[in-house]
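COMPLEX REQUEST
Ligand: nicotinamide-adenine-dinucleotide
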Amino acid sequence: MNDAVTDPRSATAAFDPTALFKETPMDRPYHLLIDGVLRPGAATFDVINPANAGCFAQCPKADAAMLEEAVAAARRAFPGWAARPIDERAGLVEAVASALEARVGEFAALLTAEQGKPLDQATKEIRGSVHVLRAFAAMRLAPRVLRDTGVNRVTEHRTPLGVVAAITPWNFPMILLVNKVGPALVAGNTMVCKPAPTTPLTTLLFGEICQAILPPGVVNILCDEHDLGPALAAHPDIAKISFTGSTATGKKVLASSADTLKRVTLELGGNDATILLDDVDAVQIAGKVFEGAMRNAGQICVAIKRAYVPDALYDAFCDELARLARAAVVDDGANQGAQIGPVQNKLQFDKVTALIEDSRARGTVIAGGTPLDRPGYFIPPTIVRDIDDAAPLVREEQFGPVLPVLRYSDIDSLIERVNATAYGLGGTVWSSDVDRATGIARRVTSGTVWVNQLMAIDPTIPFRGLKQSGLGTEMGEEGFAEYTQAQVINAVALDAA
Ligand code: NAD
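STATUS: Structure written out below.
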């Protein structure tokens, strides 16, 4: 335990979910976490609430010297942390999960303020983060006996890597963070974590919990304005980069880490297709597809980003999607009843609106299309029909609340069209015949294809992107193993050698 600086908010205090908004959170200081100490930054930068485009807090910004301090602290903490029995490390991760659970409302309110998602979805993300930490606290990798002849015993053991850097994006700042923190710590690594500059605050709040529970240096948290990532990826004392973000940045991370031959896990972008087979009720499935495309304002790596619908169902499906889009409540996520919040930042807002504008000439916008006339980055759910495969909205990852709907008449050419992308993250197939849908799913070149369900992601099930959607695996035993290195011990008795 580290008591050097106390957590300003008691883990057990009753929480009023509206308090964070009432108490002008601008005034609340946030700190970096370096070597067990909550510290101000070398400078600060504005954090914008995407629901009103106004600055609501200052984020401490680390400089290059602080990065060196954080890496050195993580390196110093590593031998002691790795030497603890795994049950002890898991117990501390479990304690972090419980402390987070005690502050769900506070974290959710802050997440809504910085990310924009409706409060109920933010609450789910924080509860999900507690679940993920607990799932990894329960995970173990037993040594494998590869041969045991009586004279020759060959075993494979897993040891931690050292310092792991976690670099995270802005769409799910908390759950994507703990997907890395959980396995890295339980496996015996220490960490330097760096959130995206537009959503840094929940990660810093999480740092307060880590500071109160974990030994100094085990978790360090730095914030930047996109400038420290390359230095982390190139740093000789960092053993692994666990990165979640865009494919373009993932390629840069891979290049920066090459010189030191770091272990790298990259969870990158996607352009997931959803396929309706001809035996479904178009109206019923439209409801599910709408949810899969518009949750978190479409800013999910495995959101449905293209819909392929058989000719016979096409009109009914489009009509129902348009109806749902017009009925959806688009509002500040802090307001009761909001279903779709703003796009998270101005850059993404501009990208999505440009894709919509471009698609007007290539298809028909049947719902949404025009940003709301109010402060903030609000784009209503937008449905585009009769658009061709070559349109940027179909080929690129839109990462926003707009869905192109495409027709098909023949399964073989459909599969070709679905796979004609550099991405290979997820996908969905809908059919009343699970075996038939599974057969189609097997032909889609993606790391995960869901049949008749949306985004069923679970910390005990491996998750990975194929092609340019990623490198390596997160979650499941395979993902856990990526925070370790395997060592083979090949032993014979002295008199048998
Ligand atoms: P991004 O790539 O712009 O940024 C991600 C992180 O990388 C940020 O913390 C950023 O500061 C940092 N970074 C920027 N330049 C860097 C560099 N040169 N070296 C190292 N780090 C650097 O991504 P984003 O816009 O924040 O997130 C959206 C993207 O993330 C989408 O493409 C989405 O599909 C993807 N994503 C993937 C998954 C997955 O599991 N596959 C999950 C969520 C999001």
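REMARKS: Confidence is low (pLDDT under 50) at residues 1-26. Residues 162 and 189 are 5 Å apart (CA to CA).
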